[in-house]
Amino acid sequence: MTVTNDILYGHLKTYFGFDTFKGLQEPIILNVLQGNDTFVLMPTGGGKSLCYQLPALMSEGTAIVVSPLIALMKNQVDAIRGFITDNNGVAHFLNSSLNRQQIQEVHDDLLNGVTKLLYVAPESLNKEENIAFFKQLKISFYAIDEAHCISEWGHDFRPEYRRIRQIINEIGVAPVIALTATATPKVQHDIQKTLGMLDAQVFKSSFNRPNLYYEVRSKLNTEKEIIKFIKQNAGKSGIIYCLSRRRVENMAELLKVNDIKALPYHAGMDPTSRSTNQDKFLMEEVDVIVATIAFGMGIDKPDVRFVIHYDIPKSLEGYYQETGRAGRDGGEGQCITFYSYKDIQKLEKFMQGKLLSEQEIGRQLLLETVAYAESSVCRRKLLLNYFGEDYIKDNCGSCDNCLRPKKKFEGQEYVVLILETVLAVKEKFKADHIANVLTGILNSTIKSYKHNELEMFNEGADKPSRFWHTVIRQALILHLLEKEIENYGILKVTAKGRAYLKGPYPVQLTEDHEYAEGDDSDDYIIGQAKGSGCDEELLALLKDLRHSVGKKLKLAPFIIFQDPSLEDMAIIYPITLDELKNCQGVGKGKAKKYGAEFIELIKKYVEEKEIERPQDLVVKSVINKSSSKVFIIQSIDRKMPLDDIADIKGLQMDELLTEIEAIVNSGTKLNIDYYINDSIEDEKAKEIYAYFKEDAEDENLDAAMRELGLDYTEEEVRLVRIQFMSAEAN
Fold first, then answer.
1. Domain boundaries in the chain?
2. Packing angle between helix 316-323 and helix 379-386, nearest 10 degrees?
């Protein structure tokens, strides 16, 4: 299908109300419209849904969208129907939640050519009656959402996904677009191979989080180190991850004994306790949550300043996701991990009893984690390399290895020896085997393949095995070696590696960490936020005031004023409401609503300290609304469904509602009646509104949920509370 720019942008404006595309959306959509297979790797927030929704609306026939979450399907369908207001049949979902009459309505719209998007669960796609029915339809293309579920190497494997290609062939072949927010090259290859789309055009967005600082420490005196770190970062919010529930409980108790406000969180706790502890963390009644991986998925807290791993995670993918919960607001985010090889051995023991294939996958993932922990190469370079992305800088300036570089050595002869050995064993073995050959370890595998007869056998015996692993890892980063994707872990010499053998040149390698001894020196706690030039004493007072105001108003402190706003106050010393509005993130409504106590504190501080205020800074104007907030306000003004706003901005619905709550609480009036009318029964909405108007003593959500009862969802109550606050308070 040939599409001009005018046509493409015209449909974008007509259907979605946008004037421009985001990131890689435009080339992805054009590739789909041209009938090509497409693979999309786009971290959350990139706008993946539009990549198949727009081409579906523009194409002849129906696009089948495979999605694993029933709740997500309904939101997506409602969003599309919100755009195409004159045709509710434009999008449907087909899953186990529908009754016979509803299924018949879906079938009728599909057969009549009304439906452009049909969302199905993989289980529904597998049903024989559905396959028979789909054969009657003209399929424009297939969209596989959350495609990492296909791969056994992915973090959320779903066996039903592996039959999708077989079913597509049975229904009728059409182009495929596979989309996921996280996939290593191995997972990506597995997805493409399983879907029969190895020739697909691939579109990738960056995984780099430049504001995060990465550090791995030796696991010695760990509790002491953690307490020391937290006290040096007093008042900052953080998460500590532990692998076991018992460790979570013990660590939380230890922190409390040492006067650190901390609480535990794990799946073994009752739901009420878990919810209470999470709320206390969000409300800054505690600074630290000690948790298993059960905590953190979608938490609504942008100012988590540190993530500590007491235990090394089972995979780098898990590590990336968990560290990613730090610094979501773009501010400081310190990621500290404690490492001991004994922990790896424990994790390997946990795998015993599983299927051999699962053990092999788990062990390979653990080896990647070991490589990351022990290497002295830039952490950011290693992490991005794991996801198939190159980081071109030699020094990121924001990881322990770059800030405290280990000794370098000339590695040309060692790299040549590694490359020659990989070729000598016919590129059929993993790193362990290569190291064993070089160090002269005569095990059964080496004997059976007669690798003890190779000229390089025992040639590297003057170095330990871990040294050769160091060289191998850095040769991978230099792209002289690569790991075969089909049989993951098997080493291959790249074209660049073969060229290197023909014309070797000097190459600087870095010694690995040994993590044999801890370092208690004061300069070991490193990577903290650089000074912003603000008055630290005043900033501490402002944070205390924010906390007390938040407690009084039962609002999370960061909704009142976020850290950048307080830092600006501690730089320019505003003593009037007009001056306060010059601070970042402070609008007229917010200044009027919350500002009086803050400017009173600042005025008193300025007088007591005899501070000469920098008047030249006070008059500078600052944009008071972030682009995200402006987008939300404008989208609501255009009556865009909230589900789609959330999708475009890469937010969960609860995250979007918090954004909207913050906008409304700042004094901006928003009218979401159109969305409430479509998503909540009229009587229910009236009852919730009446509760806040007549019965509520405050706007506390928990109190509202207890009073209103189980017939009301948290989302419904929050929506009507926003409606009430906007109408009654602004």
1. 5-204, 212-355, 408-510, 536-618, 627-729
2. 120
CB-facing half-sphere around the CA of 233: CA atoms within 13 A: 28
Say what the pLDDT of residue 667 is.
60
Q: What pLDDT is attached to residue 457?
A: 94
Q: Assess contact for 156 and 146: CB atoms under 8 A.
A: yes
Looking at residue 601, its pLDDT comes to 94
The residues, any chain, with a CB within 8 Å of residue 511's CB and separated by 6 or more, are 376, 406, 407, 408, 409, 470
* Residue 135: predicted pLDDT: 94
Antiparallel, parallel or unpaired: β 481-483 and 288-291: unpaired
What is the widest separation between alpha-carbon atoms in the chain? Answer: 88
Class of domain 627-729: mainly alpha
The answer to whether 408-510 and 627-729 have equal CATH topology is yes
Q: Output the DSSP codes for 435-500.
A: HHHHHT---HHHHHTTGGGSTTTTTTTTS-HHHHHHHHHHHHHTTSEEE-TTTTT-EEE-HHHHHH
The fold adopted by the segment(s) 212-355 is: Rossmann fold (3.40.50)
Helices and strands per DSSP (H, E), number in the chain: 35, 17
SS3 672: coil
The answer to whether 672 and 642 are in contact (CB under 8 A) is yes
Q: Which CATH superfamily is domain 536-618 in?
A: HRDC domain (1.10.150.80)
Q: Distance (Å, rounded) from C-alpha 641 to C-alpha 368?
A: 42
Protein fold of 5-204: Rossmann fold (3.40.50)
Distance CA 301, CA 721 (A): 20
Q: What is the mean pLDDT of the chain?
A: 83
pLDDT on residue 347: 78
**What is the C-alpha separation between 522 and 604, in angstroms, rounded?**
36
Left if phi > 0, otherwise alpha if psi is -120 to 50, otherwise beta: which for 201? Answer: beta
Are the beta carbons of 350 and 380 closer than 8 angstroms? no
- Ranges assigned E (strand) in 473-632: 481-483, 491-493, 508-510
Res 5: pLDDT? 83
3-state SS of 299-317 is CCCCCEEEEEECCCCCCHH
* CA pair distance 394, 243, nearest whole angstrom: 33
Spans of the chain below 50 pLDDT: 45, 297-298, 516-532, 615-626
3-state secondary structure at position 216: strand
Question: Given this model, what pLDDT does residue 615 score?
Answer: 47
C-alpha angle 88/716/727, rounded to 5°?
Answer: 100
Residues with Cβ within 8 Å of residue 592, at least 6 apart in sequence: 577, 667
| In CATH, 408-510 is 1.10.10.10 | yes
